[in-house]
Hints:
Blueprint (H helix, E strand, L loop, with lengths): L24 H11 L3 H13 L7 H13 L3 H13 L7 H13 L3 H10 L4 H10 L3 H13 L8 H13 L3 H13 L5 H13 L12 H15 L7 H13 L5 H12 L2 H5 L5 H11 L3 H13 L14 H18 L4 H14 L7 H20 L3 H13 L7 H13 L3 H11 L3
Helix pairs in contact: 1-2, 2-3, 3-4, 4-5, 5-6, 6-7, 7-8, 8-9, 8-10, 9-10, 10-11, 10-12, 11-12, 12-13, 13-14, 16-17, 17-18, 18-19, 19-20, 20-21, 21-22, 21-23, 22-23
Amino acid sequence: xxxxxxxxxxxxxxxxxxxxxxxxxxxxxxxxxxxxxxxxxxxxxxxxxxxxxxxxxxxxxxxxxxxxxxxxxxxxxxxxxxxxxxxxxxxxxxxxxxxxxxxxxxxxxxxxxxxxxxxxxxxxxxxxxxxxxxxxxxxxxxxxxxxxxxxxxxxxxxxxxxxxxxxxxxxxxxxxxxxxxxxxxxxxxxxxxxxxxxxxxxxxxxxxxxxxxxxxxxxxxxxxxxxxxxxxxxxxxxxxxxxxxxxxxxxxxxxxxxxxxxxxxxxxxxxxxxxxxxxxxxxxxxxxxxxxxxxxxxxxxxxxxxxxxxxxxxxxxxxxxxxxxxxxxxxxxxxxxxxxxxxxxxxxxxxxxxxxxxxxxxxxxxxxxxxxxxxxxxxxxxxxxxxxxxxxxxxxxxxxxxxxxxxxxxxxxxxxxxxxxxxxxxxxxxxxxxxxxx
Length: 438
């Protein structure tokens, strides 16, 4: 363990410090004070000899002065003397003495030195990390919390103790301690989602300029977890806009799944009822976004899920009262597309005819249903004639089954062949299937 000697305003001595006429005033005063028993000044003088500042470098004198100051209980002197024993500067190299001095400094409350000792002593690292934590070195709190959560580095597994250490480190501003403490409270045995949210908030809001190796994603990970809590309304009041902003931070931090989560939260901002019912992501949110983007089929599917309860596994509970809204949106989109014509209008007209048949979002109307089927077939035929192979398949299916047109298998086969010859795989599939029919 290499440490630079600290330039301090302290001192100690154990050798003669006779002042010389040529000494600078600073040195003369330090020598006089040291000889009179002011061991802080001995440490200051030793530092001057060690660094060769204002006096010629003399490592032996420096070591003697550090020893005198250390014997008087001045811990900075003990710390620097330990370095001299480790390096063999001014004294014979002695690692045992160096270690004993460091143990003394650690016991006196130097948290950073306790932490360094822990790094070199894995068998009892947990106790030393904890000592560093209680001495006011926040990084030690995180390391000790890790050790007690895992039962490693000389510690017995103790989640309560681990949590307390994380909390202490977090309170002192250690981002990693906030993050790990939040995870423990979010997922551990003794859950406390309110406290977890507070710890994630602190970790998320604290930007770490140069995080320790392996901890580069602590801040964005904390933001992601906090985003999940805002999305679910766990530990905090549900807020999709807040969740989205947090997922955006995590996305920029390259946290896996965060970018998709941000998109989902953005969609759920427009669907407060769905968000409140527990919908968070996946297929359900994808369908909502598709519906918002003008895909009528997704709107109709959502309506059917609410009506029949077929979307419970996706997080959409059965709720017939919500279904009409989605059916009406689907019908409006299909009506516009059917009336406009063009590619895909066939399906829009057919979807609308089914809505009239089932009474989804409008009154049942058999005559209107039949008229729309006829219109759909006309649109599909027109687009097929223009070269839309997809529409050739659609009108072929209508002739195959007699949907809105007289059943005509031969005409269906010709339409499927046209689509298949043009490179439409759907046409090829239907052509093969038609050939297997009795």
